[in-house]
Design goal:
487 residues; 43% helix; five-stranded parallel beta sheet; alpha/beta; Rossmann fold; Helicase, Ruva Protein, domain 3
Length: 487
Amino acid sequence: MPSGQILLADDDAAIRTVLNQALSRAGYEVRSTSNAATLWRWVAQGEGDIVITDVMMPDENAFDLLPRIKKLRPELPIIVMSAQNTFMTAIKASERGAYEYLPKPFDLKELVAVVGRALSRPRTAISSVSPVENEDIPLVGRSHAMQEIYRALARLMPTDLTVMITGESGTGKELVAKALHDYGKRRQGPFVAVNMAAIPRELIESELFGHEKGAFTGATSRNTGRFEQAEGGTLFLDEIGDMPMEAQTRLLRVLQQGEYTTVGGRVPIKTNVRIVAATNKDLRVLIQQGLFREDLYFRLNVVPLRLPPLRERVEDIPDLARHFFMLVEKEGLSHKQLDVEAMDRLKRYRWPGNVRELENLVRRLAALYPQDTITGAIIDAELDSQPLLPPQPAGKPAGQAQQNSEGLSEAVERHLAEYFSGFRDSLPPPGLYHRILREIEGPLIGAALAATRGNQIRAAELLGVNRNTLRKKVRDLELMVVRTNRS
């Protein structure tokens, strides 16, 4: 690990002590302070190889200090810490040139690893997009799952990389795509969204690429396609899994060559758009079924982003509910709040419709009930068509309420029963067999690798599979393998 001097700034003395000890043990020299003025003086004097600073300081906000540091010493890497943990915090850190953003609390090993990467990188200035001062937060939630999404989005803002967003219906895939555009380098261009599932199959190519007059029956004039409309901006292809094979072939050609022809046209048209795709289906299953091109999948899946369902981030429900109540209040409905019992009911609900279902419930509560405080009985009345999950024991997070004596078979059976009940009278999307195997396979291989401390030879022996098979599974499942030594 490279050595170096770290300038550490945090108003909390206890946090400074913990970070100082962890970084010193890793072999770094640390100078710490409780205010931004001292940090600025050290930087101005040419001290330090890296800066680690909290956002909120007693004498100055770090976001106001960062531009001055980057102007004076553009090559100096800066790691920003914050307990605010919002989407805009991550975006501002990226816009002001931070090397990395770490939401508190974080793993000390992660901080040490980030410092090592920052000090070993080439000393060039970090480019950033121009600052955005809009404080409207498009994404809400402070859970660990959403923090990872925020950090990934912050890294993607100054790039034009193609992004594939996966997640169940109602998780906010278009909101994420819109945030990528609104806070990215193409924000001055148009954002054009097209839903593949909402367009008749025979019209998708015309919708995307446009058509010439007389190209087919009913084409009485030239029509511009979505690629042309999105020129210089972002094209969001929602429900990409519903795109027919013929259109997939043409889209692949556009991604490979950067040009297309209209339906009925002959002259190639150059295109300059950023592609963001989204799906609620498992495209790997569609590939196996011959319904989706594997080469197109790899062209689109440059940066995969998985949005967690609401049941995996129940700690975000209070923030989301307050956010939606504020929105409906701005629209003219009366102010509402939830009591403790009502919030408990919301946290125990399965939310098959995810965030969209929660928003619709909040709107219904605000419009139909005259009470200022929504009680648990009202929530029960609204959600009586769906069984609630059992209450969580004190001190146990969601998903860990089952008895330790429950076997794997019983746990899987219970999970599947809850999963099917979430679709009410309908059935889950096709490809359930492969999805379930993939969900089980990932944790199993991850547990084996963790138990063997990242030793893939020993993990393969433990699992009873060939070493090459294990390597392929690790690659296909996009698992991160970290080799560690026993202490």
